[in-house]
Amino acid sequence: MIIDCHGHYTTAPKGLQLFRDAQLAAIKDSALKSAVVLPKISDDEIRESLEGAQLKLQRERGTDLTIFSPRASAMSHHIGDEAVSLAWSRACNDMIRRVCELYPENFVGVCQLPQSPGVPPGHSAAELERCVKELGFIGCNLNPDPSGGHWTAPPLTDKHWYPLYEKMVELDVPAMVHVSASCNPAFHATGAHYINADTTAFMQFITGDLFKDFPTLRMVIPHGGGAVPYHWGRYRGLAQDAKRPPLTELLKNVFFDTCVYHQPGIDLLTRVIPVENILFGSEMVGAVRGIDPTTGFYYDDTKRYIDALPMDAADKHRIFSGNALRVFPRLKTQIEQRAKK
Fold first, then answer.
1. Which residues contact 296 (CB under 8 A, 6 or more apart)?
2. pLDDT of the residue at 341
3. Average pLDDT of the chain, as a whole number
4. 18-33: per-residue pLDDT in tens?
5. What is 3-10+56-340's CATH number?
6. 111, 158, 242, 278: which could join 131 in a potential S-S bond, CB 3.0 to 4.6 Å?
7. What is the pLDDT of residues 127-163, one digit of tens each?
8. Pairing between strand 291-292 and 175-177?
9. Is a pLDDT exceeding 80 seen at residue 264?
10. Helices (H) and strands (E) in the chain — how many of each?
11. What is the residue extent of each domain of the chain?
């Protein structure tokens, strides 16, 4: 089985965006609040949104199961207040649940959290619990910067975040550290803000004691870890100069995906990061959708890069599925239960 740990519902039916548009209009004019109603979206509309996109690409590229979450750039936690964020998150998460019910062999859910700038992260714990216990989700996306590019939140290692981590540990679910849209014109969302956040999160983990307090907490840093693998020596040296534990200690809790869109990048990732800390991911359909003219293949067809690695079959198996089943134990349980039926 090949498990893609990083997929977003970027092709959701138009009705979901109409709901969001109504929300945004009501923020500007409270008289429009009565119009904020999720339109009826049929199962056929959901099927149509997937059959020509994620499902088609799964079949063509030879992947089996996608860990699926709402569109990351649309989380936009900086827009509106806590109530707006909660309503939007629930609508998006419920849409993911419907996808997973229609295609249980192809998708499993990860939730969007109803974060909001200045609001304690613990307020998101109830939605996380709903998604895990009621909707069958296996993890969450955690935005380290709900302000949308202005970085007003404390570091991820601050006790500010601990109530949410306590719920994650209780439910035994990991988080993918994933920012959303950038409202700061200095940071392009997918080209700068995403990679900045990946790198920033890792540096925060180096300088804090989060995993001493939560030894079973698991974090996935996407997009190949941002700048981390490329500058591994810098981070080792910074940790050493600051009298922090070696980076090997962090690797008990921190993992990286393979959303790196060229072969040299994947080669570097797998040379620097231990194979047991790498999860296959494509971000399909996501930030880069075009064809690389130097290869004739889609940039985000990351399976091809793993296939081309000079690596034995056992290690490739870890990247393609074994590591995901360790990091997402609820996924392993679901697969085992399905096999018994």
1. none
2. 73
3. 97
4. 999 999 999 999 999 9
5. 3.20.20.140
6. 111
7. 999 999 999 999 999 999 999 999 999 999 999 999 9
8. unpaired
9. yes
10. 15, 11
11. 3-10+56-340
CA distance 49 to 9: 9
DSSP 103: -
Q: How many whole angstroms separate alpha carbon 278 and alpha carbon 4?
A: 12
Quick: pLDDT tens for 156-200.
999 999 999 999 999 999 999 999 999 999 999 999 999 999 999
199/294 Cα distance (integer angstroms): 28
pLDDT digits (tens, 9 = 90+) for 268-277: 999 999 999 9
How many other CB atoms are found less than 10 A from the CB of residue 42? Answer: 10
Any idea which residue has 């790198």 for tokens? 199
Neighbours of 313 (CB within 10 A): 6
Contact 259, 294 (CB under 8 A): no
Q: Which helix (H) or strand (E) holds 138?
A: none
User: What is the Cα–Cα distance from 325 to 279, expressed in whole angstroms?
Assistant: 10
From the candidates 60, 170, 283, 336, which is the catalytic residue?
Answer: 283
Omega within 30 of 0 (cis) for the link into 285: yes
The dihedrals phi and psi of 254, each to the nearest 5 degrees, come to -115, 135
Cα torsion 255, 256, 258, 264: sign:
negative
Residue 340 pLDDT: 82
Extract the tokens encoding 128.
């996380």
Write phi, then psi, for 241 (nearest 5 degrees).
-65, -30
CA–CA gap between residue 226 and residue 259 (Å, rounded): 10
Task: Say yes or no to pLDDT of 325 above 80.
Answer: yes
Residues of the chain by 3-state class (helix, strand, coil), percent to 5: 50, 10, 40
48 Cβ partners below 8 Å, 6+ apart? 13
Q: Is 283 in the active site?
A: yes
